[in-house]
Design goal:
The chain is α+β, with helices and mostly antiparallel strands. It has 4 domains: 10-166, Beta-Lactamase (2-Layer Sandwich); 174-292, 2-Layer Sandwich (Beta-Lactamase); 311-459, Reverse transcriptase/Diguanylate cyclase domain (Alpha-Beta Plaits), CATH 3.30.70; 485-726, TIM Barrel. An 8-stranded mixed beta barrel has the order 18-19-21-22-23-24-25-26, surrounded by 4 helices. Strands 2-1-5-4-3 form a 5-stranded antiparallel beta sheet. The chain has a 5-stranded antiparallel beta sheet with strand order 7-6-10-9-8. α19 (575-585) runs parallel beside α21. It is globular. It starts with 9 loop residues before the first helix and ends in a 17-residue tail after the last helix. The structure holds ligand C2E and calcium ion (CA) (2 copies). One calcium ion binds next to β23. The site of one calcium ion has 4 residues, from loops. It comes from Paraburkholderia caballeronis. Residues 328-461 form the GGDEF domain. Residues 470-723 form the EAL domain. InterPro entries: Biofilm_reg_signaling (IPR052155), EAL_dom (IPR001633), EAL_sf (IPR035919), GAF (IPR003018), GAF-like_dom_sf (IPR029016), GGDEF_dom (IPR000160), Nucleotide_cyclase (IPR029787), PAS (IPR000014). Residues 173-243 form the PAS domain.
């Protein structure tokens, strides 16, 4: 028997393998379907995804495998040979192969004769194991096509493994404090629902007189004197019951207990968040008694941002007012971090907090002694620059601040790059009074953000005019609602299997009396942000359902209507009752309606989840719109009650030219199928795109190839529905 030689980069390969968290007792269930397909496709009794460890191999998934007693040593493993080469390793008859004829798997009870395996590569190109098919009969007819199909399945397996690695990575990172938090002067403790300490930073350990490494052995109770413990337990129990600490009354006085038995008066603020169903707490602590003058301490606490230690919003306003009463003047720079929410969502709150602390530190390093650095919003910072009255000088400060923020940071082991937009206003030139100075800097900031990430903008009077114009625009939107200027257009959706029309997506348009037909890009952002969204959303739902009912009665009995929802529709009123009432009103079965939601709407909101769940149970379709463009999509697939995903048009448009986009679409379709979801591709414009999608197994399509969004009348004419004649059906091939 020939033992496989070790690979040249074996240490690195094993390190890569470890990142997937797999083991003989930790298989990967998402691979089960892959091995089942493989066994079925090649008509063999056994298929497996086999990982090659240090001296043993183990299954990440297997089907038809007899179980115990099989030699799983690396020396005996066929897969250990397969990972030495790039392509598909085929052994038509092991008894005739000098590497394997005396192998215990061949001569023993397992009686392996045929083997075909493809290496599975990590993102970094290390062969971690192999997808293989095995038979006790020889196969001399394993063709080039078969090899290609096996390779195809291996790609699918590798995609799923990659998914697992990313999830694990995010999961692991959430736990410990990130580096800036670890070094932060603010004492922080993270603990779980039982008061067990998960992590604390240097300042917290020092506050209590312990070493940082002692943290995981301690509980919160051990850090409080006997008499305060019941109160503490009660506090945590109430938070766990409510799922939040918002609005909770805190014990009036809490003490800390040091390791040496001494006590101190403890000031603290508490945050919590839910992760995988479990509540995790973060407490920021201060030794109040250590501050000589308690009144002074309270004053400082009130004026400081707890996370970063810089001034908070209130003290920033106060300082700005004070600065403007003196004749020297001042400038205000407001900074907003770009894409911070995404960072928080993908890398976790610990990293997010770490970034905020680092930004605060950088701005403080830049400020002069009399300036004020403040955190005035979740990811908004502000600088008050005393005596700076020249716009060019203020702009230079803003640019320096943005540049300081843009320097690379390492937070919690991640290399992160953050950019910020800045808005600048100076007094007395732009405003004489603090509130309007800050308001003007804010308008400048909005313009900067509008221009793109990393932009700075100095206030000009026109911005005020535009703000007024926006207000007028909002008045116009009100008129549009009351005068019925909104209309719905309908875009066909088509079944790839037979080219038949399955339904339509309703898309809003505004027939503006002066500006003509406006598409959503021109007014939706204002509408979505304003108070009218729920009203307009309710109208869209009603109008679209009425149209669907009409078409279903007049020739298209199976017609399904897709309706886009606004986030506000989940926050105002009860969307579940509203949908059910609309369906009843028009005599529609729930399957006739499909609600389209985007990641922005559904992200991590339990109330939304609950509503969607109930609608889904009721039978209404839920489509995940613009799929593939966001960050959290994959985890949402698992948690959300969806019936199908809409593959975003950006992928469809690239798929013919770019192999990358094509394999992405394949992965999306495949992933959807493994979650039992149907797929529809958006933005199908050409026949090659249509053919490609059909081949990849996508169920339906929507796009200019089948029809642009059009008024109901035109839609009816085009597809022979609602015109009195009997519906003869419609076929893509006739388009
Ligand atoms: P969406 O939901 O992704 O809608 C698809 C958009 O892609 C539509 O733009 C449609 O006209 C366009 N489109 C369709 N096929 C093709 C194609 O083959 N090629 C290209 N290049 N584009 C195609 P539209 O109508 O301008 O809508 C834009 C967005 O506005 C929609 O994106 C949706 O997010 C929002 N929206 C539109 N109508 C409504 C509505 O009634 N309610 C809500 N809440 N949102 C709406
Ligand atoms: Ca949509
Ligand atoms: Ca879309």
């Amino acid at each position: 028997m020939k033992c496989p030689p070790a690979l040249p980069m074996e240490t690195e390969r094993l390190a890569a393998l470890a990142e997937y968290g797999l083991g003989s007792d930790r298989p990967l269930p998402s691979l089960d379907v892959v091995v089942r397909i493989a066994a079925h496709m090649f008509e063999v009794p056994v298929a497996a995804v086999n990982m090659v460890g240090d001296d043993h191999v183990f299954f990440a998934a297997a089907t038809g495998f007899a179980g115990d007693g099989v030699d799983m040593s690396r020396d005996a493993s066929f897969c250990a040979h397969a990972i030495l080469q790039d392509g598909v390793m085929v052994v038509p008859d092991a008894t005739l192969d000098d590497r394997f004829h005396d192998n215990p798997l061949v001569t023993g009870d397992t009686q392996v004769r045929f083997y075909a395996g493809v290496p599975l590569l990590s993102a970094g190109g290390h062969a971690l194991g192999a997808l293989c098919v095995i038979d006790t009969k020889a196969h001399h007819d394993f063709s080039a096509d078969d090899r290609e199909r096996l390779r195809e399945l291996a790609r699918m397996a590798a995609d799923r493994m990659e998914l697992r690695r990313v999830e694990l990575f995010i999961e692991r990172d959430r736990r410990p404090f990130a580096e800036p938090e670890r070094r932060s002067p603010t004492a922080m403790i993270r603990f779980d629902e039982h008061g067990t300490i998960l992590d604390w930073n240097d300042a917290a350990a020092m506050l209590y007189g312990y070493a940082v490494a002692d943290g995981p052995d301690l509980t919160l109770e051990l850090l409080a004197p006997e008499r305060d413990r019941a109160g503490l337990r009660d506090l945590i129990a109430r938070a766990v019951a409510a799922g939040s600490v918002d609005g909770m009354t805190m014990p009036p006085e809490v003490h800390g207990l040091r390791r040496d038995g001494t006590e101190f008066l403890l000031g603290f603020s508490l945050f919590c968040w839910r992760e995988n169903g479990v509540l995790t707490f973060n407490a920021h602590l201060q030794d109040l008694s250590a501050l000589r003058d308690e009144k002074d301490a309270l004053k400082r606490l009130a004026g400081a941002d707890v996370l970063t230690g810089v001034a908070n919003r209130i003290s920033f306003y106060r300082n700005a007012e004070a600065a403007l009463t003196c004749p020297l003047g001042a400038a205000v720079v407001i900074l907003d971090l770009d894409g911070f929410k995404d960072v928080n969502d993908t890398l976790g709150h610990a990293v997010g907090d770490g970034i905020l602390c680092d930004v605060a530190r950088r701005l403080t390093a830049l400020a002069r002694p009399d300036d004020t650095v403040a955190r005035i919003g979740a990811d908004e910072f502000a600088l008050l620059l005393r005596g700076v009255t020249d716009t060019a000088d203020a702009r230079r400060f803003a640019d320096a601040a943005a540049a300081a923020i843009a320097e690379p940071m390492v937070v919690g082991g991640f290399d992160v790059r953050v950019t910020a937009c800045c808005g600048v206003a100076v007094a007395p030139q732009h405003a004489q009074e603090a509130l309007s100075l800050i308001g003007n800097a804010d308008l400048a900031l909005s313009r900067a953000k509008h221009n793109g990430p990393g932009q700075a903008f100095v206030f000009v009077a026109a911005l005020r005019m535009e703000a007024v114009a926006r207000r007028v625009y909002n008045i116009e939107l009100h008129r549009a609602v009351s005068d019925g200027e909104f209309v719905l257009f309908y875009q066909p959706q088509v079944d790839f299997a037979d080219g038949s029309l399955t339904g339509a997506e309703a898309l809003i348009r505004w027939r503006h009396p002066q500006r003509g037909l406006l598409s959503p890009a021109a007014f939706l952002p204002a509408l979505e942000r304003g108070p009218l969204a729920p009203t307009v959303g309710a109208w869209i739902l009603d109008e679209a359902c009425e149209q669907a009912a009409f078409w279903r009665r007049n020739g298209a009995p199976g017609f399904r209507m897709g309706v886009n929802l606004f986030g506000a529709q989940f926050r105002v009123g009860n969307i579940v009752d509203e949908v059910i009432a609309v369906l009843d009103r028009h005599g529609l079965p729930p399957q006739a309606l499909e609600l389209e939601v985007t990641e922005n709407i559904v992200l991590d909101d339990d109330a939304v989840l609950d509503s969607l769940q109930r609608l889904h149970e009721y039978g209404v379709g839920i489509a995940f719109d613009d799929f593939g463009t966001g960050y959290a999509s994959i985890s949402l697939l698992r948690r959300y009650p969806l019936s199908r995903i809409k593959i975003d048009r950006s992928f469809v448009q690239g798929m013919v030219q770019s192999g990358r986009d094509a394999s992405l679409v394949r992965a999306l379709v495949d992933m959807a199928r493994s979650f039992d979801l149907r797929t529809i591709a958006e933005g199908v414009e050409t026949v090659p795109q249509c053919d490609g999608l059909r081949q990849l197994g996508c169920d339906e399509g929507q796009g200019y190839l089948f029809g642009v969004p059009m008024p109901a009348r035109e839609f009816g004419e085009r597809f022979d529905i609602g015109l009195g004649d009997e519906w003869v059906g419609w076929n893509v091939n006739r388009a």
